[in-house]
Specification:
It is built from 22 helices and 4 strands. The protein is globular, with a radius of gyration of 26 Å. It is mainly alpha-helical. It has a 4-stranded mixed beta sheet with strand order 1-2-3-4. 55% of the residues lie in helices and 5% in strands.
């Protein structure tokens, strides 16, 4: 049934970090599934003990893992029982979570277990948990889609899955980027958030991530998040996951957003990752927040300090995103821009699945060329061109509606004045005066239908920087 070969898709990632980290949701899930609640070690079966003895012959970690993989594969060929396969998988994901993409046994055991015609609740959740370690890499998403198509409706309909089961399933689909259209799933997801009555942020964040991924908008959820944030002392570790859900849905709720922002900024510490700060900044930027200069300077300094860390070496995108978000918030960091623009990675383009990430680098470059050209000695660029014709894919129905109604008697053209900023506008020339009409619609405003979102506000600011005569037309009036 399954013809995928994990080895074909694997990424060789041998981390020095072994075992699931204490205090993580993943370890909590593992302990729950193995009935190992809080215990340092679970009792090992004879097959695991035997294979450990064999693998100990390896001199280094890489050699040890290879020997162990061959031993596991030999056991598979000898008709290893399903129960033993699952136990071996449990052992592997706990002891070697970052090496499983290198193990043939991991993929082969999953294939065999998925071939089983009858999978009970416990096996269903364990398989989802294991597959989640493959993340976006095939065959992980295909395996999960198979389980969803064949079993999810029945598992939800019979109420087999408890709260922890459901959280494990949500996180596995989130890691694998598998979206679910099942209404029962959507209703259950909302219900789990509404049922939250404690400060267990781990499970709450699991559900919020899934709501965000599946684009499920609920005013009840927003109200519940406000209630929980007011009632408990949440810190940035959970709030940087909650705020993006609000931002993605363009929620205009000043009191809730200010509460979350204040708690985040006050709890950011020396251990905060650039990833968390940029996630926070991106949400603030998309919500078009007016932030204190002192707070922006504090966050800027955190990001700059992290450029000397390993995170900068391995996750360059986090720093580009942070710089762009700061810029959208009208806080230009000369020092951070200098660091990024002197890095060769800033000018490299990636594979097709990186187009969205690479577009942020291009937009940041455009912003600098327009607002701070002296920083990069840029005197002549194509970042701004008043009459640049817009490509067809940017001409949304709201623009056509404005062209055919409000501007019907004008001689307007669709333009993309700001390069790399994918919002089209309408340019009208009236008695030798050029007027730029920008459209406020559901894609460019917050939920109050009158406040521009961050990217639209950025465009208006850049146009005015170039001395353009700008008028905003709302399709909601």
């Amino acid at each position: 049934m399954f013809r995928f070969n994990l080895i074909k898709y694997q990424i060789r990632y041998l981390s020095s970090e072994a075992r699931l980290l204490k205090g993580t949701l993943t370890l909590r899930f593992h302990d729950y599934l193995t009935n190992n609640h809080g215990q340092e070690e679970q009792q090992k079966s004879k097959i695991i003990e035997d294979i450990e003895k064999i693998s100990d012959r390896g001199r280094g970690k890489t050699e040890k893992i290879k020997i162990m993989d061959r031993s596991y594969m030999k056991s598979l060929r000898n008709q290893l029982r399903h129960e033993d396969m699952i136990e071996c998988l449990e052992y592997l994901v706990k002891i070697y979570p970052n090496q499983i993409l290198n193990l043939r046994f991991f993929d082969e055991a999953l294939k065999i277990l998925l071939e089983n015609d009858k999978i009970c609740r416990k096996e269903f959740i364990k398989l989802c948990y294991f597959i989640g370690f493959l993340k976006k890499f095939q065959p992980g998403p295909k395996y999960l889609e198979y389980l969803i198509d064949k079993y999810l409706d029945d598992k939800l309909g019979s109420n087999e899955l408890n709260r922890m089961d459901f959280a494990i399933f949500c996180i596995s689909t989130y890691k694998s980027s598998v979206r679910i259209s099942n209404k029962k799933f959507h209703d259950r997801l909302i219900a789990e958030v509404l049922a939250t009555d404690d400060n267990d942020t781990y499970l709450l964040v699991a559900f919020v991530k899934s709501l965000k991924q599946n684009e499920i908008v609920s005013s009840q959820v927003i109200n519940k998040l406000r209630e929980l944030t007011e009632a408990f002392e949440f810190d940035y570790a959970s709030l940087v996951h909650i705020l993006p859900y609000i931002a993605d849905n363009s929620i205009k709720d000043d009191s809730l957003i200010q509460l979350i922002c204040t708690k985040c900024i006050n709890t950011f510490d020396d251990n905060v990752r650039a990833k968390d700060v940029q996630k926070f900044l991106h949400s603030c930027a998309m919500l078009n927040l007016k932030m204190n200069k002192s707070d922006l300077e504090k966050l800027e300094n955190v990001i700059i300090s992290r450029t000397s860390s390993d995170e900068y070496k391995t996750h360059f995108d986090h720093f580009v995103n942070a710089a762009l978000s700061l810029w959208m918030l009208n806080h230009q960091s000369n020092k951070l821009i200098k660091i990024l623009f002197e890095d060769s990675r800033f000018y490299k383009t990636g594979l097709e699945n990186r187009l969205k990430l690479d577009s942020r680098k291009l937009l940041l470059q455009t912003c600098v060329e327009i607002e701070k050209p002296k920083w990069i000695n840029q005197s002549n660029s194509s970042s701004f061109l008043e009459t640049r014709t817009s490509p067809g894919y940017l001409i949304k129905s709201s623009l056509e509606r404005a062209m055919n109604t409000v501007l019907a008697d004008k001689n307007g053209i669709f333009v993309q004045q700001i390069k790399n900023l994918n919002l089209a506008g309408i340019l009208v020339t009236d008695n030798d005066e050029k007027i730029h009409y920008e459209i406020l619609d559901r894609n460019t405003c917050l939920s109050d239908r009158k406040t521009p979102n961050g990217i639209f506000q950025l465009k208006l600011r850049l146009l005015r920087k170039k001395k353009c005569n700008v008028k905003v037309i709302s399709i909601f009036k």
